[in-house]
Design a protein that fits this description.
With 273 residues, this protein is α+β, with helices and mostly antiparallel strands. The chain contains ten helices and five strands, in the order H-H-E-E-H-H-E-H-E-E-H-H-H-H-H.
Length: 273
């Protein structure tokens, strides 16, 4: 596996995704890219603190229907090795089922995964979480295949991909509390709109970078671009003009100036996007 080429491919994809003013996670594109990068089935998992469970896959699994999904979701919540790994270690980095120490999982946990998933060729799994909550909730992408476990190169690629997915997720969350982006007379990108929304909520450049997983220097670059598009020269005027153009949700509950979204406990390495 050429990690450098894969990393460049993902950087290009995410640079494209954050340009679009989209207030929802682009699951379909991410699933497709993950499936291509890892040559595996890719899926998206949501586990709520209330026990709710959502699942979406990059492509259909022959024979895997509603009953199998129900059994799989119950196993996910009760005995899945990766669940116990993340709860016990609080380590949010990508992890495969086979790397979880046996003593950490209740009796029968590994066997249940094999029993439920081997018939469909998805018993070897690699999780890439991008949101973990203290109450046990999570959002993650999971790769699945049969045969051998995911290797060191796969794990390395997952760790390169993880902060990029977190970056996209955080931007979507910011835009979701803004205004619909279909009416955007200034032609701001999704990244610029997210920076602008955070600016209007009182964040400094350092705080914006912390929330969006980018460096303060990159924040200043985005600020310079949006100042030019709004024909202003300072932050106060930028917020005023953007408000007049209907680009901001002024009723959004402002966060503390340096606070990142409380639901995200994964601290991703900063990327330049």
């Amino acid at each position: 596996m050429d990690l450098q080429a894969q990393s460049a491919r993902w950087l290009d994809l995410v640079a494209d995704l954050v340009t679009v003013p989209c207030a929802s996670m682009p699951h379909a594109r991410l699933l497709a890219e993950l499936s291509t990068s890892f040559q595996s089935l890719s899926s998206w998992h949501f586990v709520g603190a209330d026990g709710s469970f959502c699942f979406d896959a990059s492509h259909s699994i022959p024979g895997f229907g509603a009953l199998e999904l129900d059994l799989w979701s119950r196993a996910n919540r009760s005995t899945h090795p990766l669940l116990f790994w993340y709860q016990a270690t609080l380590d949010p980095r990508p992890m495969s089922v086979e790397r979880v120490p046996r003593q950490m999982v209740p009796a029968g946990g590994f066997e249940l995964v094999h029993e439920l998933c081997a018939p469909f060729g998805i018993e070897r799994q690699l999780s890439i979480p991008y949101e973990l909550t203290p109450d046990g909730g999570s959002r993650s992408f999971v790769l699945a295949q049969s045969g051998e476990d995911y290797g060191d190169d796969d794990l390395a690629l997952a760790r390169l991909v993880q902060p990029l997915i977190a970056l996209v997720s955080r931007q979507a969350a910011i835009l979701a509390r803004g205004v619909p982006a279909h009416d955007n007379p200034a032609g701001l990108t999704g990244r610029e709109l997210a920076v602008l929304q955070l600016l209007s909520e009182g964040h400094t450049a350092q705080g914006i970078g912390h929330v969006l997983v980018i460096s303060p220097r990159t924040v200043h670059t985005h600020l310079a671009h949006l100042y030019r598009k709004l024909d202003v020269s300072d932050r106060l005027r930028a917020v005023t003009v953007a408000d007049q153009l209907g680009l901001l949700n002024r009723s959004a509950e402002p966060a503390a100036p340096e606070e990142r979204p409380s639901q995200v406990v994964y601290e991703a390495p900063r990327q330049q996007c």
